[in-house]
Design brief:
Length: 268
């Protein structure tokens, strides 16, 4: 497959390129560094691979190579795992190696194609977000069922449901499951009543938490203390009210949220 060039979008700087190369090398550390990388990958949605038969955006290449060919098989294998948290990293890594192999087979290597590492990093980043995100979803869904929480979840094997607006509904409240708190740090309006998230402290997975919009918190109710994203962990076990940009949320430990939901559902 003959490739002419990779065209990077306007505004994609040397710093952006370094961020995505650092991701490829596993050298991203710290919230600000990750924010720069996310901004770079958003820009790369508009990057283009130019070939004699046409121009292909990085996003279109991801959909062709990864989403259409790998997503369903991965999810079926994921759901068959007995121990999702322990065994899913090896599973999604095996698919990541397939992506690298496809890039090599198509001649998308740095020696032959300047910018090829950027394309490969883009594909692997979005694959990693997909694979880890759904592994976390399955982990949470199984735990909620085992805990006796009543909820409705979207069907991961149904492509239309997979991309439904919410991941789950609990007592009439819509929820989303996130592997980071990055969504709180952007100005985009929050679409869900609550968010189940994995918090990280100094790069290490620390605890599960739930972040609720004020209207959803009123359904559960209780006193809160004031805090920030950076002080959530030290504020626990108390519910912590935070203001981040345009967002105001109440965060509490996942286990405490489950306890309060079970009490709420027992009263209904």
């Amino acid at each position: 497959m003959t490739v002419t060039e990779i065209q990077l979008p306007a505004g994609f700087t040397a710093d952006h390129e370094q961020a995505v190369i650092n991701y490829l090398a596993g050298n991203l550390q710290g919230r600000k560094v990750w924010q720069a990388a996310f901004a770079a990958y958003d820009l790369l949605d508009r990057a283009t691979l130019v070939m004699p038969e046409g121009h292909y955006s990085f996003r279109a290449l991801y959909q062709e190579i990864v989403d259409r060919q790998m997503a369903d098989n991965y999810l079926r294998e994921l759901l068959a795992l007995d121990y999702v948290r322990e065994d899913s990293p090896a599973l999604w890594s095996s698919y990541a190696r397939q992506i690298v192999s496809i890039c090599q087979q198509r001649g998308w290597q740095e020696a032959a194609l300047p910018g090829a590492r950027v394309l490969q990093s883009y594909l692997l980043c979005w694959w990693g977000a997909f694979a880890r995100g759904y592994a976390f979803e399955v982990e949470v869904f199984r735990d909620l069922r085992n805990s006796g929480v009543e909820f409705q979840a979207h069907d991961l094997l149904d492509r239309q449901e997979r991309y439904s607006p919410s991941d789950l509904i609990v007592s009439g409240m819509t929820g989303d499951i996130k592997t980071s708190v990055y969504f709180v740090q952007v100005a985009t309006p929050l679409q869900h009543d609550f968010y189940i998230v994995r918090l990280f402290v100094q790069g290490q997975s620390y605890t599960l938490a739930v972040m609720l919009q004020s209207s959803a918190w009123e359904e559960i109710n209780g006193d809160t203390i004031l805090g920030t994203l950076g002080t959530l962990v030290t504020g626990f076990p108390y519910p912590v009210r935070i203001k981040q940009g345009v967002h105001e949320l109440v965060a509490l430990r996942y286990d405490e949220w489950k306890r309060r939901i079970l009490r709420l559902q027992g009263e209904i």
